[in-house]
Amino acid sequence: MQSMQQIITWRTAPSCDHPKNNFVFIEVNRAGSTTIQCMLMRYAYNHHLHVILPRNGLELKWIKDSGATFDDLPWADGGYNVIVHGMTYKWKVHDVMPPDTSYFSILRNPENHFKSMFHYYDVGKVLGITGKNQASKILKNPSALTDKKGGIGETQFVTSVRMSAQARDLGFGPGTDFDQPKSLENFRNITRDFGMMVILEHLSESLVLLRRVMCWELRDILYLDKAVTTYSYKDIPMGSRQLSNLKMINKIDFQLYDFFNQTLWKTIKGLGPEFLEEVSYYREVNIEVAEYCRQIETEETIAKLSIPAGKWTTGFMVHQRTCEELKLQFEDWNTKFIMRRNAEIRGESENDVTDTEGTEGDLPPPPKVDNLPRPSIPKEKEENLPPPPKVDTPPPPPLQEEKVDNLPSPPLPEIKKKGKKTDKKSHNSAKDILDEMNVPDELPSAPK
């Protein structure tokens, strides 16, 4: 297996002269996934890619006892390029997608994720908790989460928390930590299969890195926030006791977040100051485009916004159609793809169904995709997979969740060098692997 750093170096080499158009994004609920899904659907639509569409709703479901088959709406000529709809990650998705498919997902600081889930399922109301910091109150005595039975919101929330909700979306089953063999195996699968992981608290850095990994243009990673909610305790930090209790019941999510957050910043440090310059430029452009789209709502006539060619972009125009696409919700994109797919099935021109004038670049459709079986991974590669992270790392300070793009980048962590290699076959438990990680004492936090 190539490490994430090796993948980034290869992807950003001068030979990276064409975009990667086969990709799978695994949705993680309440972690900023909707914003990323809309961005990816816009890219797929404007590049005429085939997205796997659920037959009903917005979630993909595997057909039981049918091998690697979704209950989906097939395209006329077969072949898929993209998965972005909700699904639990499973290895058999590789049998559906082309061999060169890129896989990535998103993670959120587990403290913030817990509060978001608590608010989303209205657990305070179900359990009769009042006050400004309801989520923190319940963690003073976490057994209260299971003492009361009743509301569906409570049931789903308790299940999600005790199973580490983010890890569950990435294919982890029930488990408390990496001492369970199945959880350790799932961790190794994720580090092997995923080229990178978006970190919500460092969204700008993550998206610029994604652009380089996928050989995309800067305009491809423009976005407007989607499904952002506010509540009284959103920015109130948890006390040490509450945070400790949360780590006990949500351990795998903390381990995953710490590992991939550190991996992100280790990669960024290796890319040098020029990468952070691009991040700063990207933030400025995204803000400028968002402001332009706000103005276009109130002004009858407004000139197109020109983003000139430069070091990090070939240049592009922003117009009303661009803003309309940026504002579309995920459900809207799903409908647009269904209309395009139905037109293909009927053999109609796309213009008979929807107006495509003004799409970015009027890009031609890609060649037909032949879904070849993905080759199996030799066992010897399994032995070189990175170990899971330590879990006793002090938690980062309270984070501002989605709104980090207008602020300076956080400091880069000092990465400790690994000591003498050890024979992984000699490990007697997951604890030995965790101890070998030798991660920094402190992880980078979002800017205040």
UniProtKB/TrEMBL annotation:
Residues 350-360 have a biased composition (Acidic residues). Residues 425-434 have a biased composition (Basic and acidic residues). The keyword Transcription does not apply. It is a single-pass type II membrane protein. The keyword Transferase applies. One of its GO terms (molecular function) is galactosylceramide sulfotransferase activity. It is found in: Golgi apparatus membrane. One of its GO terms (cellular component) is Golgi membrane. Residues 347-448 are annotated as: Disordered. Residues 385-399 have a biased composition (Pro residues). GO terms for biological process: glycolipid biosynthetic process. Its main location: Golgi. Keywords: Glycoprotein, Golgi apparatus, Membrane, Signal-anchor, Transferase, Transmembrane, Transmembrane helix. It holds the Pfam family Gal-3-0_sulfotr. PANTHER family: GALACTOSE-3-O-SULFOTRANSFERASE (PTHR14647), PUTATIVE-RELATED (PTHR14647:SF87). Belongs to the galactose-3-O-sulfotransferase family. This is Galactosylceramide sulfotransferase-like isoform X2.
